[in-house]
Every structure is written in structure tokens, then in C-alpha cells.
Amino acid sequence: MQAPLPLGSRPPVLRMSAVDKVFGADIVALKGMQLDVNQGDFISLLGPSGCGKSTALRLIAGLMTPTTGRIEWSGGTGQGDLGVVFQEPTLMPWTTVAKNVALPFRLRGKSGAEVADAIRNALDLVGLSGFENAYPRELSGGMKMRVSIARALVTNPRLILMDEPFAALDEITRFKLNNDLLDLKTKTGCTVIFVTHSVFESVFLSDRIVVMAARPGRVIRTLEVDEPYPRAEAFRTTPEYAAHCRAASDALHDAMGIAA
Fold first, then answer.
1. Are the CB atoms for 164 and 22 separated by under 8 Å?
2. What is the per-residue pLDDT across 87-103, written as a single tens digit (0 to 9) for each?
3. How confident is the model at residue 84 (pLDDT cuts 50, 70, 90)?
4. CA end-to-end distance (rounded Å), the chain
């Protein structure tokens, strides 16, 4: 897999332009949201609760529509090019790992036999080869999340949306899945928008951090993490990582209305 193109020279995937989202008469979840997503980006949306991070993902996924503004896909594509990973794995407990991963294909009317190779490949990518016939109740929390990621990857989407997928996991499992997610990015070249509350997670994973403030939800700063991929665990102990974490922490404090 070739390294991603430098920031600023990647082909466009998606643009959010002046997007507002208002609930009811006066609850402004997003105000003037601007976001350019390019091929190979790993973008983290970082901000306090209530700043509209998850709302932005739902708008991109087509689960709701903007009150004003536009969301435009390059090349005329749309939600069919998406994979989505939620905070909870949202697996069907009554069926196997393989059939859970096959769900996007089933919704498109394809049989299990037609997509068996794609399912095996997706499970291999997330380190779950041999678990095709296991049931969710037999898996750990981290393994369930891997199944959810495999389901998002299986159709080879242009864009993967991840809404705090590791928030409920213990720190050791979370760090391991952070490492594995970057390994997946290297292998597949996928484009990711990742919602998180964690400065440390956002810096480790991202090449761009979009910092958001609440009431109304809006972008206040965009930070580039101009460190090369792949990033191994040793990156967490470097001066460069510490400097990026300080910058992201300062921006997050500003977003929360606290003097850095």
C-alpha cells in the first residue's frame, strides 16, 4: 500500500458547506459547519458533549437532513459509499459473526455464497479469521467492535464514519484497537471521519483534527498532525506527539470556554 498523498493534494470525497441543523424551534445543533473530506484522510472531530459531532456524522450518513446548507459528494456518489461504526457494536445476537458482517450485502439482495470471500477478507483484516461461526455472546467487547468494523469495511466503502467506537472499552483494549485501526488504514487506504472526546486518541490516529465548540455546534479550529504513517506505539512517547497533544488540548480548552 502506498503512503497517502500529502494534505492539500488529495482528491475530494465530500464537502459540507455552511450546514446548519436546528431541532425544534431553537435548538441549534450545528451552525455554519464546513468540512472538506479528501481521499485517504483520517479526520477526528474533537469537542465537548453537545457540540454536534455525532449530528455531523448522521447528516453525512443521510440519517437526517440539514436545515440549511449543502452536503456534496464528489463524483455524484452518496450514502451507498459509506461504512458506519457506532459506539456500540449493534450486532444481531441471534446470528453468527459471518452473517453479521454480511448484513450490508443482504440489504442489497446478495446471497452469502456470492460474498463469502469478501466476508473472509474483512474478518482477516480485523484479526478474526476462524471466528466466522461464533456468536456475539461468545466474544469480548473488543472482538465485538472488530466485527462491527469488519461489517463497515466489507463493501470497500469510500468513507467510513466512526462515532466514538472505542469509548466504552478499557484503556488497554482501546490502545490496541487504535493501533489496529491505523494498520487497517495502511492496508486499505480507507478514508475515515472519527468522533472522539480524547485528545490523545485524536492525535495518535489523525492527520487532521477538527475542533468543535458547543451552543451552537461549530468548528473553531483545524489542526494538522503532520506525522507520517504508519504510526507505531512508540509514537505516543515522542516529543512530536506531546507537542500535538498540547496544541489539541489548548484548542479543546478554548472550545469549552476555558482559558488554556
1. no
2. 888 899 999 999 999 99
3. very high
4. 40
d(CA 66, CA 47): 20
Kindly report the pTM of this predicted structure: 0.91
Type of residue found at 130: G
Among the residues of 70-213, which ranges form H helices? 97-101, 103-107, 116-125, 141-153, 171-188, 199-205
- Domain ranges across the chain: 11-77+162-167+194-260
Q: Which residue has the cell 454536534?
A: 52
Burial of 111 (0-12, 13-18, 19+ CB in 10 A): exposed
Q: How far apart are CA 7 and CA 17, in angstroms?
A: 20
State what percent of residues in the chain have pLDDT above 90.
68
The reported pLDDT for the residue numbered 106 is 81
Residue 255, Cβ density class (10 Å: 0-12 exposed, 13-18 middle, ≥19 buried): buried
Q: Which CATH class is domain 11-77+162-167+194-260?
A: alpha beta
